[in-house]
Design brief:
Radius of gyration: 16 Å
Number of helices: 10
Shape: globular
Distance between the termini: 45 Å
Strand content: under 5%
Oligomer: single chain
Largest sheet: none
Helix content: over 70%
Order of helices and strands: HHHHHHHHHH
Length: about 190
């Protein structure tokens, strides 16, 4: 029963579409009709309103932190279930016909909740790659693969499967970006 409750609550928390809510509330626009049509923070920045973009980023991180930290403290055996369900809620929200964001900000919240060092490594690699190439998608993909690699190097093999699955999911959500990167058609991202 705990397994089911944790799964449902984590999924529902993750499925809150903050990018959509904020753009409709403050700009009276539907984010799905802007830029890539994605509900995540990168596309929220394309509204031209940095406050909405960064608020979306923070809230998409926090919506993962809340259930994962709660589960970590109360049902530690279910932490990976809570993490995966929060992520899947963001990527496949029931409220939006299962068409959500790419999950990177939510994954950042998961990483910081599970292990502070993992969150720091992800953020540092994301920042370095972004400073060099200016592609949010490329930064997300490279920093995502860095986590299972780091875990393998530090001999935490028992955690490798979960973080490898998370990388595969993020790779999947970025499949269109990968095509555009290969064809040199991907848009560079302005974050300031």
């Amino acid at each position: 029963m705990d397994y089911l409750i944790v799964s449902i609550i984590s999924y529902l928390m993750g499925s809150i579409p903050f990018g959509l809510i904020l753009t409709q509330l403050f700009l009276n626009k539907d984010i799905r009709n802007i830029g890539s049509g994605n509900i995540g923070a990168t596309n929220a920045l394309r509204t031209g309103n940095k406050i909405i973009g960064y608020s979306t980023l923070i809230l998409d991180i926090v919506k993962a932190i809340i259930p994962v930290i709660f589960v970590k403290n109360n049902y530690p055996d279910l932490i990976y279930i809570a993490s995966l369900c929060a992520f899947l809620g963001h990527v496949f929200p029931i409220w939006l016909k299962f068409k959500g964001g790419k999950g990177v900000a939510t994954y950042v919240g998961i990483l910081f909740s599970i292990n502070l060092m993992l969150g720091i490594i992800f953020a540092l690699i994301w920042g370095i790659v972004f400073l060099i190439f200016r592609y949010s998608s490329l930064s997300s993909i490279i920093s995502s693969i860095s986590i299972p690699i780091y875990i393998l190097i530090t001999d935490q093999i028992s955690n490798t499967i979960f973080f490898s699955i998370m990388f595969i999911l993020i790779f999947f959500t970025h499949r269109e970006n990968i095509k555009r990167l290969k064809n040199k058609e991907e848009s560079k991202t302005k974050i300031y």
